[in-house]
Every structure is written in structure tokens, then in C-alpha cells.
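Bit of a strange request maybe. I'm writing a small parser for C-alpha cell strings and I need a real example to test against, not something I typed by hand. Could someone generate the C-alpha cells for this chain?
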Amino acid sequence: MQWRRQIHYVAIDMSPGCRAAIRIGLPHATVVVDHFHVIQLANKMLNFVRRRTTATLRGRRGRACDPEWQARRQLLRNLEDLIDTRFSTMWNALIDTGTIGMTLLTAWIAKERLRDLLACACTSADRHRIGHLHFKFLTWCADSEMPEVRTLARTIDRWWPEIAAFIATGHSNAKSEGSTA
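Reply from user aminoacidic:
Good idea to test on real output. This should exercise your parser:
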């Protein structure tokens, strides 16, 4: 069919089945992973680390009085969206909690390094800059010795061609996913 040849890019979430179907049905098209889904994956990792660490070290679920529970929403926010006082309060409270806080900050920094990498989209960043940020993210994750953070890094690495295509093009499926039709 002629219309298929006119499709150059397909933006998707991180679904292996969808990626396989596109490669079969539109083998000439470039598959692009929507950045929202990449950050969503990082946020899920961060929540899982928070829950697991709290359960392991406290022997129970998080409570409203726990610093890691109080910081849960700030941990999911973008660094640039946190006002300085909220960031400082979150950071200092987590450091003061010891192991739980340091673990969460390690996972949070991994998320923020991934965001730094994705922020190169449509900025005309050169290959060296993108490669440096990619390496910085993967190295941080490998050095963390946290299974959830390392799993995130492996997933990003497995989807790297599609993520790199997003960085190069900035294409997103946000408009089609946000449609209420």
C-alpha cells in the first residue's frame, strides 16, 4: 500500500509487541519512543525503590511520619520544578535518614540523569554531548548496585535506538494519547 511508504516516523510507548508489529508492517519507518513513557518508567522505578527500601529497613510500609514518605511527591518532580527550599528540605531530610535516604537519592539522581539525556531532544546537541550524557547515566546506574536502577539502565540500553530517535527528532505521541475522541 502506497500510504505506508509515506510514514517515516512512528512514536510509541515502550511496548515490545508494538515495536515488532511496526517493524513488520512499516519496515522503512523509524520507531521513536515517546519521552513521557521513559520518564514514567524511571518514576515507577523510584517508587518501587522507596517502597522496597522502607519495607526492608523499617520492616513495614511507609507512614506519613517517615521522611521518605513525606518526600515521595518531590522525588517524582523534575529538579527544575522544585523551588530551592523544597529541594533543600527534601535533600537534607533524606540524607538525615541514613541508608533509606541515600538509596532514594541515588535512584532520584538516576532519574534526573535520564531526564538530562532526554532534554537533548531538538536542541541540536552533538553526538559527543549525547554520548557523554548517555554514558553518565549508564555509569551512575551501574555504580549504584541497586537492582531496580540497573534494570532501568538495561531497559534504556535495550530501547536506545528508539530513544536516540526521539532525541534526534523530538517526535512524540502525546497529542494522540491525550485525545479524548
